[in-house]
Amino acid sequence: MSSPFPHTRGSKLGYDTDEVDEFLARAREAYDTRASGGGPAISSDLVRRTAFTMRKGGYFPPAVDAALERLEDAFALRERDQAWTKAGDEAWFANARSRAREILNRIERPDGQKFTRAGFLRIGYHPKDVDAFAYHLVQYFRAGADLSVTDVRTITFRSKRGGYDEAQVDALLDAVVDVMLAVR
Would you state the pLDDT for residue 39? Predict the structure, then answer.
């Protein structure tokens, strides 16, 4: 049987092949059966938060990550369509606008004050990097600047002692992805 993804070579680490295969099988079953109202519950949020153990000779992470992004998009589109059918156009877009407003309220705070600090002895995201990306997010929400879901998913920030709390920043980025997928 051929493998769905390339493997890492030598001593390079990749995603555990059994874990990836099992998750994708569950996701495929969930996607196929949720259309008829049954099957295991897997959401776009669960796909986004999925992590795999690293093993020598595992699947090449960028290839798996790209597949997971497509899978997340497919689940998000289905969730959007189901919610839109249930709520209707006006309610759906009002909800998306409300969530975008919450995001803007956070990222329009003054530089250096957008998120809680990790603490003096803890490592967090470098505030200047996060603030610079927040500027791009503001331009996206306010003026429709060119920014893709992939840009948000793949952004990286330098580390800094006493920087912004990583969990808070990551939660906001997840919310941005949710809103972007909701209005596609």
Answer: 52
